[in-house]
Amino acid sequence: MLDNMIFKQLMKHSFTIPVEVTYPNGKTEKYGNGAPQVKIKVNEKIPVKDLLRNASITLGEAYMDKKIEVSGSLQVLINSAYESANSFLNNNKFKRFLPKQSHSEESSKNDVQSHYDLGNDFYKLWLDKTMTYSCAYFEKPDDSLEEAQMNKVHHILKKLDPKPGSSLLDIGCGWGTLMLTAAREYNMNVVGITLSEEQYNAVKQRIKDEGLEGQAEVLLEDYRELDRLPFDYITSVGMFEHVGEENLGEYFNTISRYLKSNGVALIHGITRQQGGAYNGWINKYIFPGGYVPGLNENLTHIIESGMQVADIEMLRRHYQRTLEMWTDNFHKVLPEVRKMHDERFIRMWDLYLQACAASFESGNIDVIQYLISKGPSARTLPMTRDYMYKD
Q1: Cβ atoms of residues 15 and 81 within 8 Å
Q2: Domain of 89: which CATH number?
Q3: Distance from the CA of 184 to the CA of which of 166, 178, 291, 312 falls in 20 to 30 A?
Q4: Which residues contact 211 (CB under 8 A, 6 or more apart)?
Q5: Domain stops at, among 59, 94, 129
Q6: 230 lies in some domain
Q7: Number of Cβ within a 10 Å radius of residue 170
Q8: Can you tell me the mean pLDDT for 194-217?
Q9: Which entry of 259, 265, 323, 356 is annotated as an active-site residue?
């Protein structure tokens, strides 16, 4: 009885939009003014002790197991919960510290492979043709996802102001679009590094297919173990979110070590302006070992590693739109996904995409590009930012 009362109070104060909640006893309650924008059906009792232990895991698993069903947009519902000061996502009564994450080289390899080695065929279903699994860059309102992903690649490379024949290291190279574009269109000598066997095999084949064997190379190893000469430029997209809070300093020190004097790096990743954070459900089901660092945290590590900041750009709204497009694509190919995965996985992945879109929409997280140099800031770069936008 007490659990029911507390859970109803939790629902009553958790959203900024009108919602309708149907409880396991069949009784329906409406919260907020106006017609419900989203309807929630609670099929089984949710123990409050589990919510207090970790609300994100408890509610995420309840949705995956159909203990909770939602009619309407998950993104709208979760964004509303982020915007409510009294929701379980913001109220300190429902937050807890997570145990320290392990990020040995072996655990990092397992973490990466658990997500990225779901199979190239799975990602091909809902990513665009570039197979780019990170925030796109929408220069025009009507850019397609593929156009926006290529915009992002060129936006990153232009920020480096690269010279033909120079060397580039791409840490966490994904399926290779950025590094191979740098080789093919900017005449750079590139090395990509990944821990995903699926990505490694795909990039290796692309290098062969595009005739770039003498100019591009991909390595399957931990970024901390690279035994190469320093590079003129370094890029790293969507990588530092996976190294763990305790290894952020090592990550930026490694970048500094691999950069030549006055070298330039573009680091692109998810960052919280409010400070670093874990998410229990994301850590358990999507990105094991994941940690979203705070803006101040990253800046401190950059400076302590002997580098300086040349430019910072926030792309929060771009990632929201990217995730919304991925969600639409995912929904369109559900018949094909069902041939690969069960309904619990599908509900998990749908929740992941829409929850992340909501988190960016609400400003709970951001994605930021850090343009940094080894030595005085931007010593080798043009005096103004105009060069970043020239064809």
Answers
A1: yes
A2: 3.30.1050
A3: 312
A4: none
A5: 94
A6: yes
A7: 28
A8: 95
A9: 356
Task: Say if residue 184 is in the same domain as residue 113.
Answer: yes
| Phi–psi pair at 304, nearest 5 degrees | -65, -20
Q: In whole angstroms, give the CA distance from residue 375 to residue 301.
A: 14
> 90 pLDDT exceeds 80?
no
Among 53, 71, 94, which residue terminates a domain?
A: 94
User: Do the beta carbons of residue 108 and residue 298 sit within 8 Å?
Assistant: no
**Structural domain count, the chain:** 2
Question: Helix (H, G, I), strand (E, B), or coil: what is residue 265?
Answer: strand
Q: What pLDDT, on a 0 to 100 scale, did the predictor assign at position 48?
A: 79
Angle, CA of 173, 177 and 182, to the nearest 5°: 90
Structure tokens at 39: 């309807």
Is residue 172 domain-shared with residue 218, that is, in the same domain?
A: yes
Residue 173 annotated to the active site? no
Task: Quote the domain boundaries for residue 337.
Answer: 105-388
Gap between the Cα atoms of 187 and 232, Å rounded: 13
Q: Which residues of 35-52 are buried (b: 16+ CB within 10 A; e: fewer)?
A: ebbbbbbbeeebebeebe
H-assigned helices in the chain = 2-12, 48-53, 55-64, 74-83, 105-116, 120-126, 145-160, 177-186, 197-209, 248-258, 280-285, 295-304, 316-332, 334-337, 343-362
φ, ψ of residue 59 to 5 degrees: the values are: -75, -35
Please state whether beta strands 231-237 and 28-31 pair in parallel, antiparallel, or not at all (unpaired).
Answer: unpaired
Chain segment 32-56, per-residue pLDDT in tens: 999 999 999 999 988 878 877 888 8
User: Which tens digits make up the pLDDT trace of 183-197?
Assistant: 999 999 999 999 999
